[in-house]
Amino acid sequence: QVQLVESGGGLVQPGGSLRLSCVASGFTFSSYGLYWYRQAPGKERELVARVTSGGGITNYADAVKGRFTISRDNAKNTVYLQMNSLKSEDTAVYYCYARGVWGQGTQVTVSS
Questions:
Q1: Mean pLDDT across the stretch 40-67?
Q2: How far apart are CA 16 and CA 4, in angstroms?
Q3: How far apart are CA 66 and CA 99, in angstroms?
Q4: pLDDT per position as a tens digit, 67-96
Q5: Could you give phi then psi for residue 16, rounded to 5 degrees?
Q6: Which residue pairs from 30-37 have beta carbons closer than 8 angstroms and sit at least 24 positions apart in sequence?
Q7: With 90 as the cut, is the pLDDT of residue 55 above it?
Q8: To 10 degrees, the CA torsion angle through 54, 57, 62, 68?
Q9: What are residue 18's DSSP bridge partners?
Q10: 3-state secondary structure of 102
Q11: Which of 32, 45, 78, 92 could form a disulfide bond with 40, CB atoms 3.0-4.6 angstroms apart?
């Protein structure tokens, strides 16, 4: 079955960096676009970034443009989200999404 497993979350100070990873299994990874979403407490889940199947096109939410970078390694069935210059408002559970399936999420907390 399709499975997505995120990792890399944690507690970081404002201005710091984290790299999230999402390892996929159960489908032809290289054929699908991949997405990172996040959900902060009391807010709706929102799209953060997406990348096309070949990796050639990426899109970002305005709130993260210039700070976050999505990338994929089709040989490793893995999608990444590099997050730099983190702000308190980036605090949320981050989810990987592909082929109609959600990962379990990884918590990112930005706090001093």
A1: 95
A2: 26
A3: 27
A4: 999 999 999 999 999 999 999 999 999 999
A5: -80, -175
A6: 30/54, 30/74, 32/98, 32/99, 33/98, 34/70, 34/72, 34/79, 34/96, 34/97, 34/98, 35/96, 35/97, 35/98, 36/70, 36/79, 36/81, 36/94, 36/95, 36/96, 36/97, 37/94, 37/95, 37/97
A7: no
A8: 50
A9: 83
A10: strand
A11: 92
What's the token pair of residue 102?
A: 């959600």
Paired residues of 22 in beta bridges? 6, 79
Q: Give me the count of residues in the chain.
A: 112
Query: Which of 41, 89, 80, 99 lies closest to 62 in space, CA to CA?
Result: 89
**pLDDT tens digits for 9-25?**
999 999 999 999 999 99
Written as six digits, the tokens of 3 are: 């499975």
**CA 110 – CA 3 distance, rounded (Å):** 27
* Average pLDDT of every residue of the chain: 96
